# Entry
Amino acid sequence: MDWLLLILAGVFEMIGVAMINKLHHDRNRKAIVLLIISFGLSFFFLSLTMKTLSMGTTYAVWTGIGASGGALLGMVVYDEPKSLLRIISISVVLGAAVGLKLIE
# Structure
């Protein structure tokens, strides 16, 4: 269950990052509200997982999901470059998160 909450925290981190990007393009209240809610939920679920999982693993997986997910959202939603090197780099980050899960 803790790993599911950690993934959920990472997903809300991705949404928060997407809302930051949305605010740069068009400032509106909806984006600000979603930004605050998504980062708040992200930190809430992160804090729950840190009660049972180690801080180092939890933080590394959370940031890995947020960074990789943000990059993927940028490529899919915001038409950012989709180079092979970029995709390989995202895969390495996700692979490291999976590796930490396997040894935890």
Summary: Residues 2-103 form one domain. The chain has a mean pLDDT of 92. Residues 2-25 form the longest helix (24 residues). The helical segments are 2-25, 29-49, 55-76, 84-103.
